[in-house]
Write a structure and sequence with these properties.
Length: 583
């Protein structure tokens, strides 16, 4: 005999070919056991025991027991990232192990601002469907912190018992930038944080080994970390900078370092910014490009000179002088990147650029639709066969990189440049190969240097780094190079003196005599795909698809953002600590 639909529904199993409806005979068998079992709470596959009193149909019935647990193979998460969602379910069974669906459950979060609980819609319209749906909820991670999720039965006639678990919500990062002695990142909520040494944008000069918030209430779409200075593009496309300003790299028009973000002078909006050593460049939505900061090596790219002005033309407007003991050209405000002037173009010819890559003494960029040009001081890293400086006396303001290739992404290190081919996704590099940073052991030439060793391998023309590797973007810093491949894996090559390749044991012979690799080393992040990479002078940072910020390399000065490894030497990939909680 089958019980009526509402008979003892608090302990009712779902009718199905596998699990028949709970009949009165079965119910009487359950309530024969005259015992009361005390509450017991254990997590992850260990039973919880409920004391169950008789239902209204049998007011004098002795108690029986049921069990509640997290379903096998579907444990509740202990960690989530901001914006993650997860489906939580409980299983209730009788003493024979048969699943019971008829149970009213109340779910709760101890802090809804950290973890929000959302009910699951019933599969149908019946009361049974509603009870089945109550066994599950969906939780949504809203912000970093900790919260306890609990499930408690609230049905009349059953002793209330709670199953709970604490969940840690971690910050979700969407981008990172590795500078010289500090790093910065942006979260999914567009908040910016920095860590390391120097002025990090939080109003303090003390630095921090863990991420600290930048400014108050600012929302960023991108940022770039340089050598003691940082600039970021806000959601409204305005630009704010902070940190060292000895070379005018903050672009405010004034002097003095800034512990908090300050607005860029003269340019209302930009789409992206890129920091070099002592200077910054930015590109607008109309592909106009501006640079500011040091111009000691003519790396700002403003090649305009007033035509026919002696002795060889003069820059206009004149550059600033940021020198202390000796003169040093700079610009404390953004200047356009433009070609020489002429009677037909009295204000110079602006270069339409899609991307720009500042380095130390040279800058490279991509013209539309993808040809590479470089300027500043150097030789093969500019794509030139001779040493030159693109100052006001040079024949040309820019060097067109030979080879006729079109590129989709470009990056520059201390003395080398790399770019991703637009048509084939291959990384091509040119410049000095002292540490294998060109990605080849056999560059097409040798170059003299002013350091040790005096002669190193080099290449003036773009040389394929790895024919078998297809990449979407490339990153360079110091004497190292990394690429984000089309399979979302990270590969690095060049100097490994500070563990920049992601494997402190990777090494080999190179011209510079330090640990390096001219072949790509795949960075092991536990098999997680990457969405972002950035190469600093001696360290590298990345963001995984789940949203974790990972850094590796030189652990000094807090640049890796992890307190437990700070100052321990060369460190492999390590997750950045959670940001400092704002008061």
């Amino acid at each position: 005999m089958t019980a009526a639909p509402n008979t003892c529904s608090s302990a009712r199993r779902a009718p199905s070919p596998v699990v028949p409806a709970l009949g009165l005979k079965r119910l009487r068998r359950l309530i024969v056991v005259p015992r009361l079992v005390a509450r017991s709470t254990r997590l992850r596959g260990v039973w919880l025991v409920l004391a169950m009193v008789g239902c209204e149909d049998f007011p004098d019935a002795p108690t029986s027991t049921v069990t509640v647990q997290q379903p096998p193979g579907a444990p509740w998460p202990q960690e989530l990232f901001v914006k993650d969602t997860s489906l939580l379910t409980i299983n209730v069974a009788d003493e024979a192990g048969t699943v019971i669906t008829g149970l009213q459950v109340q779910w709760q979060s101890s802090d809804a601002s950290v973890l929000e609980v959302r009910p699951v819609e019933p599969a149908g319209q019946t009361h049974e469907d509603s009870l089945v749906a109550q066994r599950s909820v969906r939780i949504v991670a809203q912000r970093r912190g900790k919260a306890t999720i609990s499930a408690r039965n609230v049905q009349a006639g059953i002793e209330s018992v709670t199953l709970s678990q604490e969940v840690r919500v971690m910050e979700r990062w969407i981008a990172v930038s590795a500078g010289s002695s500090h790093s910065c990142g942006i979260t999914i909520d567009h908040d910016a944080f920095c860590w390391g040494t120097g002025l990090l944008g939080n109003g303090s000069a003390a630095g921090s080994v863990i991420p600290v918030p930048v400014g108050r209430g600012l929302k960023f779409r991108s940022l770039t970390a340089g050598d003691g200075h940082t600039c970021g593009v806000l959601l409204d496309h305005t630009v704010q900078c902070w940190g060292s300003n000895g070379n005018g790299e903050l672009g405010t028009g004034g002097v003095g370092d800034q512990a908090l973000p300050v607005l860029l002078s003269g340019i209302s909006i930009l789409d992206s910014v890129f920091a070099g050593d002592g200077y910054v460049c930015g590109v607008s939505a109309t592909n106009s490009t501006f640079c500011w900061g040091t111009n000691a090596k003519w790396q700002l790219g403003d090649g305009f000179i007033r035509p026919f002005s002696p002795p060889n033309g003069r820059p206009e407007p004149a550059f600033d002088d940021c020198g202390i003991l000796f003169p040093s050209l700079c610009s404390r405000r953004p200047r356009p990147v433009r070609d020489r002037g002429s009677p037909a173009a009295e204000d110079g010819v602006p270069l339409a650029l899609s991307s720009v890559a500042p380095a130390v003494t040279h800058t490279c960029a991509l013209r539309l639709p993808g040809a590479a040009v470089c300027w500043g001081e150097g030789s093969v890293q500019l794509g030139s066969g001779v040493a030159l400086t693109t100052d006001s006396s040079s024949a040309e303001a820019f060097v067109s990189v030979p080879g006729g290739l079109a590129f989709q992404h470009i990056a520059a290190g201390d003395r080398h440049t790399c770019a991703v081919g637009r048509s084939d996704g291959i990384v091509y590099c040119w410049g000095f190969n002292s540490h294998g940073q060109l990605g080849t052991a056999t560059p097409d030439s040798t170059c003299k240097t002013q350091s040790i060793p005096p002669v190193v391998g080099c290449s003036r023309s773009p040389t394929a780094a790895f024919r078998g590797l297809r990449s979407v973007s490339v990153f360079a810093g110091g004497n190292s190079t990394c690429a984000l491949a089309s399979d979302s894996a990270g590969y690095c090559w060049g100097s490994n003196e500070f563990g920049q390749l992601g494997d402190p044991t990777a090494g080999g012979a190179c011209d510079a005599g330090t640990a390096c690799r001219s072949s790509a080393v795949k960075v092991d992040i536990g098999g997680e795909p990457l969405v972002s990479l950035s190469v600093g002078a001696t360290h590298v940072c990345a963001v995984t698809a789940r949203g974790a910020a990972i850094c590796w390399g030189d652990s000094s000065k807090g640049r890796l953002g992890r307190k437990s490894v700070n100052g321990t030497g060369v460190v492999g990939p390590s997750r950045v600590d959670e940001p400092e909680q704002e008061e």
